[in-house]
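yo, Class I SAM-dependent RNA methyltransferase is done. seq:
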Amino acid sequence: MEENFNMVAKTLFGFEDLLAKELTQLGAQDVKTGVRSVSFSGDKGFMYKANLGLRTAIKILKPIHTFIVNNEHDLYNNIYKMPWEQYVKPTGTIAVDATIHSELFTNSLYIAQKTKDAVVDKFRDTTGERPNVDLKFPDVKINVHIDRHQCTISLDSSGDSLHKRGYKIATNIAPINEVLAAGLIMLSGWDGQTDFMDPMCGSGTMLIEAAMIACNIPPNLMRKEFAFERWNDWDVDLFEKIEESLLNKTRDFHYKIIGYDKAPSAVTKAIENVKNAQLDDFIAVKHEDFFKTQKGGDEKLHMVFNPPYGERLNIDMQEFYKNIGDTLKQSYPNTDAWFITSNLDALKHVGLRPSRKIQLFNAKLEARLVKYEMYAGSKKGKYMK
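structure:
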């Protein structure tokens, strides 16, 4: 039996509870939420499972040492003392990244450099050889986290951020992060039991994440590599077993996922990405201007989208957001429409009252995820039935 150990899953602000729920459903133990992170415990197989199966995680870290730091000498000495030979060969490669929440230290690059020096010096002093730095494909990626006086050294089991799923071969100017897209769909409560639409689909991220949620497909199956595949204890048989067990839990989906975009180039890219993700059986992408469309049929529709914020596109945002409200009101009855925006001023011009507002961040921008409920017939009529 593999032993359990502690791990930390990093996420975006506002997704901590979603990630904790995902971890619990996957079978994690000791699940505790933090800020932009959730700690949990599991064995090596579960670490593989978390990397493959979590939709709202950015990284899975494995803490290996914690100590108190009062100055850079404490940092260097504590890292120097660690048994690095357990994790990397003297001729191997390393990369270090650091995050800091401390008045003692202000420069994360300096902390990363100091950590690298301590590891390299230890090997040079004990073996006469030293690991090289490889920022792209290191054998071991070391994460340093300093919170006030507490320093935690972790191994990064993911490598590249887990939002890089591997299905995207074409992007437009402002593609939405895959983890953000998955989290928005999950926050909207979509369960795959209705049709789904993204009326401003760009390169198709929201559509693909929705299809993977509907069919319970593990989000990171198409990734080229995880960092743990270069570790000394890499177990390919165990990994394949975990992969197979996740694939056995996929399910059928009996509704439609529809994407519109008025830019022909975006439609081409979305179709390409959908095909690459092998989800073209479930997703239809059309060249349409949302403001000139109407909902087909009376069935319930679930809509999640990421309209322009005015950061990169030169358009009249007030008029644009007014058009969103008018189109929903006039052409999309029996629809739950959710969208995220950081243009809080333009949001006032939608002209509809949101039934939900959730504070989030899109990259560095403070944003709101808002919900508008479009009823079949009038709202008054709904309550008088």
